[in-house]
Amino acid sequence: MRKRWAMVMVLAGSVLLAAAGCRGPANGVRSSRGGLSQRPRRAVVGITSAYIPKGDYVKVYSAYTEAVQEAGGTPVILPVIDDEALVGQYARMVDGLLLTGGDDVPPEAYGEKPVKQTQTLSPRRHRFEKAMVEAYLATGKPILGICRGCQEVNVVCGGTLVQDIPTQVGTAVVHRAAKGAPRAEHTVTIEPDTMLRSLLAAGTARVNSNHHQAVRAVGKHLRVSARSADGVIEALEFTDGRFGLLVQWHPESIGDAKHRRAIYGAFVRACGAGRARARDASGRP
Prior knowledge:
about 280 residues, globular, Rossmann fold, alpha/beta
């Protein structure tokens, strides 16, 4: 699949709408006669972005927004900001949070010094996402972490990471292809009695792979739901009752559409169900 990016300049304090379906009023769409239809509002999914210091802009791989839209959600790109009050507002206003991939979580965040293979993401992005995850987890709303997003959540929950799989685990399984080579693929084994196994209705899955780091010690309120043949943790899920799934692969760009729709569909449905419960509890129409 050819990579496409949704690129937007950083607007401090702004939420950037990234897909069709965000054009109309919050609770409906305008009809040809100027009135509003009663179509229910789609669940709003906040998607974290990569901050590019050179040029001062953010970008998001468009497969993320397309997968959310395909699943029936409204994708919203969250710019990287330094404002705790706005981070809290973002956490309250979105129905779901999607943490995207990118460079490595700083090892200092889990009490280690970096090895030479570690390439950390920008400090600005790390500060924002750490604060965002902390604020968002307190809401109990659905969360989906992809690749580095899986690692970020695990670290916020008190876990640690393997900084470099080839040198610290081995090369029996190729988790990231050499530069210029096709994306790596391998099989993961899914644990029984997990949400992931229920979603995929299988004990194994063939996944794409583009990472050199992985979860080592599992954080609080998380459990392992999949591993690769070399023992590397490939997926985690929350144990506190929320919809919380963290995977090392990229279901938004996987060739198996059924796999992609199973994961993103369940996530967006959970976001919609949570929004409906919050609306009913508040008494809003």
